[in-house]
Amino acid sequence: MPKFWWTDVWPAASPDLNPMDFSIWGILQARVGRKFYRNVDDLKKALKKQWSKIPQETIRKAIEQFPKRLEACIDARGGHFEQLM
Predict the structure, then answer these.
(1) Residue 43: pLDDT band by 50, 70, 90 thresholds?
(2) Which of 7, 22, 77, 84 has the greatest number of CB atoms lying within 10 Å of its CB?
(3) Quick one: pLDDT at residue 44?
(4) Quick check: is 5 in a domain?
(5) Does some domain include residue 59?
(6) Model-level pTM greater than 0.90?
(7) In a domain, 34, yes or no
(8) Quick check: is 1 in a domain?
(9) Count of domains forming the chain
(10) Residue 78, by phi and psi: left (phi above 0), alpha (psi -120 to 50) or beta?
């Protein structure tokens, strides 16, 4: 994502700052997490199927939250900030 954020200023690995972690994985977990899968391939297929059903608008909204979450992280000096969201 060089046009969005340069790698030399990318924040440390934090699920609070990753749209996949703070938003999309929760959606996928709710959709596929209630079932037992026979193997990893079956789980992968279910995840891919559900991923394709997530509206683009939902993904866009998750990405748009990034700057707000980044500001909250800065305000919390890198500490916990989920309660501020």
Answers:
(1) very high
(2) 22
(3) 96
(4) no
(5) yes
(6) no
(7) yes
(8) no
(9) 1
(10) left
Q: Which residue is associated with the tokens 């891919």? A: 48
H/E stretch holding 75 reads helix 66-75
pLDDT, mean of residues 33-41 = 95
Instruction: Tell me which residue has tokens 């199927």.
Output: 49
- Residue 37 tokens read as 């899968």
- Record the tokens describing residue 40, joined without a space: 């990893």
Q: Which two tokens stand for residue 70?
A: 């980044």
- Copy the structure tokens of residue 32: 């596929």
CB 69 within 8 A of CB 85: yes
- Percent of the chain's residues with pLDDT above 90: 36
Report DSSP letters for 11-66, one per residue.
Answer: PPS-GGG-HIIIIIHHHHHHHHTTS--SSHHHHHHHHHHHHHHS-HHHHHHHHHTH
For residue 30 the two structure tokens come to 């709710």
For the record, the structure tokens of 17 come out as 């700052």
